[in-house]
Specification:
GO terms for molecular function: ATP binding; histidine-tRNA ligase activity. The longest helix has 20 residues, at 16-35. The protein has helices spanning 16-35, 49-56, 61-66, 85-95, 138-155, 171-187, 194-199, 213-219, 231-247, 291-294, 309-319, 342-356, 371-380, 391-395, 417-424; strands at 39-40, 46-48, 68-71, 77-80, 103-112, 124-133, 162-167, 252-253, 265-272, 281-287, 302-308, 331-338, 362-364, 383-390, 398-403, 409-413. Helix content is 38%, strand content 22%. It is of the alpha+beta class and 426 residues long. The radius of gyration is 28 Å and the shape is elongated.
Length: 426
């Protein structure tokens, strides 16, 4: 027997029952983005591998273990994008829309990471990313947090998601902290697991994020970065906290929040929920004021974040009953025809209705079957109304209109269909 070809591990299909919920969540996200003046940018899903190595950092989990890299027919080494920030900056430098300009951008689409698949963690997943260029003050950091807050409120999850923030200082001050942290870790080497020992000299800040309970306990006494940051970063962070206080936004300062990618400086943020177990981070981001220059552009202040749409959809479905019953199968009108030459009349009527009622969801019955059978099909499609074109009805310029929501049925003149539909579907 021929073996069926399966989807690639960790890469999911999204069926119409899922896409209905996705679309309504996406629409809310997009509407609010536009409300803040953010514009969409669409970027390729493949870039040169060197872009990610340079942007994210050679010794990060993402670059070391998680990238999907391939060699194309020309011998170019290409990577399926694991995140969107690097590609966005690459485009900005290429098209010259970063230098001396302000940009508020967003994108949405699939990202690829070779991780161990589990709930809330996939190999192809989707992110909505936002990037702001050219604004250096903490006001824009606060704006992004306000935008997030508005999303969560509109989606009905604001009571179940909390904001953690931290300040990583400048790269120079971080270097100083790094050495102090290494010294602390060296003094407590006996409490570190093998993993931590391995990253101790390569990326010691990763240990601050360890899930090992013994290490976690040790970290409670580790030196904190905020004590070592430069003065300008401190002023920036205090400015952000003050803005959030005045705007009535709740937050926690997590001194050990570091994020997994190397490019962040100053502000880092995460929005976390307790509903999704270990995969509780819905949204993460921060400042990356050095990255544009590092990728070959002019120095440009920048800040951004990305939300994991799968995790967001999970949470919204879990907490907001309005998003539980959505289905793509909700149809407004289902047109049934029975008898010779009625099919073409039904198709013409359907087209005419679509011309004048472009927002209406309308399906025409295809295939044979008695009227009863066709009505069963209409019910399966979740239709609200069905128009029945029988030979007899057509002869007398009538159609039968059946309201499947309450079972009522009446004959109406063909010339009145549009008005009647408009009233019934209001
Ligand atoms: P995590 O700590 O969960 O691995 P991360 O720090 O690697 O997350 P980012 O690179 O900041 O995540 O990506 C932003 C968001 O994208 C995450 O907060 C999460 O919601 C989502 N995300 C990241 N990796 C995955 C994945 N493999 N599957 C589903 N969503 C993901
Ligand atoms: Mg990760």
């Amino acid at each position: 027997m021929i073996k069926n070809i399966q989807s690639v591990r960790g890469m999911k299909d999204y069926l119409p029952i899922n896409t209905a919920i996705w679309q309504s969540i996406e629409n809310i996200l997009k509407k609010i983005l536009s409300n803040y003046g953010y514009k969409e940018i669409r970027l390729p899903i493949i870039e040169q591998m060197s872009l990610y190595k340079r942007a994210i950092g050679k010794v990060t989990d993402l670059v070391e273990k998680e990238m999907y890299t391939l060699i194309d027919r020309n011998g170019d080494v290409l990577t399926l994008r694991p995140e969107g920030t690097a590609g966005c900056i690459r485009a900005g430098i290429e098209h010259g829309f970063l230098y001396n300009q302000e940009q508020r951008l967003w994108y949405m689409g699939p990202m690829f990471r070779h991780e161990r698949p589990q709930k809330g963690r996939y190999r192809q997943f989707h992110q909505l990313g936002v990037e702001v260029f050219g604004i250096k003050g903490p006001d824009v950091d606060a704006e992004l947090i306000l935008l997030n807050t508005r999303w969560w409120k509109k989606l009905g999850i604001d009571k179940h998601i909390r904001l953690e923030i931290n300040c990583l200082g400048s790269f120079e001050s971080r270097e100083n902290y790094r050495n102090i942290l290494i010294r602390f870790l060296e003094q407590n080497k006996n409490l570190l697991d093998e993993n931590c020992k391995r990253s101790m000299y390569i990326n010691p800040m990763r240990i601050l994020d360890s899930k090992n309970p013994v290490v976690k306990n040790l970290i409670k006494n580790a030196p904190i970065i905020i004590d070592y940051i430069d003065n300008d970063s401190r002023i920036h962070f205090e400015g952000l906290c003050k803005l959030l206080d005045n705007l009535g936004v709740s937050y926690e300062i997590n001194h050990y929040l570091v994020r997994g990618l190397d490019y962040y400086n100053r502000t880092v943020i995460e929005w976390i929920t307790d509903y999704l177990g270990a995969q509780g981070t819905i949204c993460g981001g921060g400042r990356y004021d050095n990255l544009v220059k590092q990728l070959g552009g002019h120095s440009t202040p920048a800040v951004g974040f990305a939300i994991g749409i799968e995790r967001l959809v999970f949470l919204v479905q879990e907490l907001n009953p309005c998003f539980k019953q959505l289905s793509n199968y909700d149809i407004d009108v289902y047109i049934i025809s029975y008898g010779s030459n009625t099919k073409i009349i039904a198709m013409c009527l359907a087209e005419k209705l679509r011309d004048v009622m472009p927002e209406v969801k309308l399906v025409t019955n295809f295939g044979e079957g008695t009227i009863k059978k066709q009505i069963t099909r209409a019910i399966k499609w979740g239709a609200k109304l069905t128009i029945i074109l029988s030979e007899d009805a057509i002869k007398s310029n009538n159609v039968i209109l059946k309201d499947l929501r309450n079972g009522t049925q009446k004959n109406i003149l063909q010339s009145e269909i549009i008005n009647v539909l408009k009233t019934l579907l209001k």
